[in-house]
């Protein structure tokens, strides 16, 4: 079996301008933040980001990497909105396509099954159809019920973060929720998994359902300890609420933001982790 270990820089080297990049996790939970920070350090731009968004979206918007955002929400969980997302959306700085969370899921599922769309009731009778005028409805051939034809959310690249993985791409989550990281992988042409620790395959024990990815679903594995910070990666660590408040305060004030960038985002991943340790 192939050894798929690589670095975050190797992952980013596979990205190019204009790609559609899906980012796993949920809000401010188990986001592949080390990979996101590696994108910040790169010249890649004009990305379409597909995400149940959290600070991944905010940081990429702050760095001018996003041309278009496809999302179900963008939240920091304990803080309702990511400030950078709020600002760029209010200013019309990015194109947006907002879906109901269930519609978003159906779009990933359609892409993972290589289908052009899947029918779903979510969205009917709501403003989702008004703000997405290109969405179409279909009639069931069995009872003529009208349904939304949710288009596939096909991805060029998927980025996810799990607790453990082996060098072949078999990945395991140890927290309470898989989110939809497996669907992100199956919806993408290239799939990259960062993890807290790379272990031998024999150490990936536990409930079978915790083995979220198999080696056929992953093209590269990156070991990034504390790589989901400041989002949560339970049980390895919870969300760093103090840091998240510091991020949100800095992101809300254009005068404070340059200092945040200088302290945490301008010195690579090692510099970031050292700065976080210094803050605590």
From TrEMBL:
Keywords, in A-Z order: Transferase
Gene3D superfamilies: 3.30.30.40, Glutaconate Coenzyme A-transferase
Alphabetized GO MF terms: glutaconate CoA-transferase activity
InterPro entries to which the protein is assigned, alphabetical: CoA_trans_fam_I, NagB/RpiA_transferase-like
Keyword Transferase: yes
Segment forming the signal sequence: none
Highest taxon of the lineage: Bacteria
SUPFAM superfamilies reported in the protein's UniProt record: NagB/RpiA/CoA transferase-like
EC class of the enzyme, as a word: transferase
EC number: 2.8.3.12
Coiled coil start-end: none
Record protein name field: Glutaconate CoA-transferase subunit A
Species the sequence originates in: Kutzneria kofuensis
Source lineage: Bacteria, Bacillati, Actinomycetota, Actinomycetes, Pseudonocardiales
